[in-house]
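Quick one from the shared queue. A colleague (R.T.) flagged Ohr family peroxiredoxin as missing a structural entry in our internal table.

Convert sequence to C-alpha cells.
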Amino acid sequence: MTAKPKVFYTAVATATGDGRSGHVSSKDGLIDLDLVIPNPITTPKKANPELLFASGYSACYNSAFQSAAKSMKIKLAGSHVTARVGIGPVSMHEFALAVTLQVEAFGIDQETAEQIAAKADLMCPYSNAVRGNIDVTVEVTARESVDA
C-alpha cells in the first residue's frame, strides 16, 4: 500500500445529474462541463469521465517522464504522452477501464526512453493509483527530433 501523502493541493469537483449524463464542475470554475455516456457507435459531442481521466493521466505521466529524465541526468528534446482510456464490461453490471499510454520521447534512443518510462511509472501519482487495478500498457517510441 502506498504511504499517505502530505497533500499540498486538493482539486475539488462536483458531479450532478443522472450519473454520467450529467454535469461536472470544479470549485475554482476552471471546469464546467456537461457529460455524456460514452457510446461506441457515435462520436460524443460532450466530454465524458474517460476523456477527463485520459487528460489527467497523460499530463501527469508526461510530467513524471520529464522529471524522471532530469533525475537520471538525461537531456530530452521533449516528450508527448497520449493516453487512451477505454471502458467496457467485464461481467454483468460490472465495467472496467483499460489504459494505453503512448509516449514519444525526442532526442534520445529507444533503450534510454524505455528506462525513463520505467522510472516515470514509479513517479507518476496516476500510475501509482491504478497499479494492480487497471490494465495499463505503456508504449514508448524514441525519435531523433521533435520534427521526426
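Residues 48-143 form a domain with the GMP Synthetase; Chain A, domain 3 fold (CATH 3.30.300.20).
Strands lie at 13-18, 21-26, 32-34, 78-91, 94-106, 135-143.
Added to the table.
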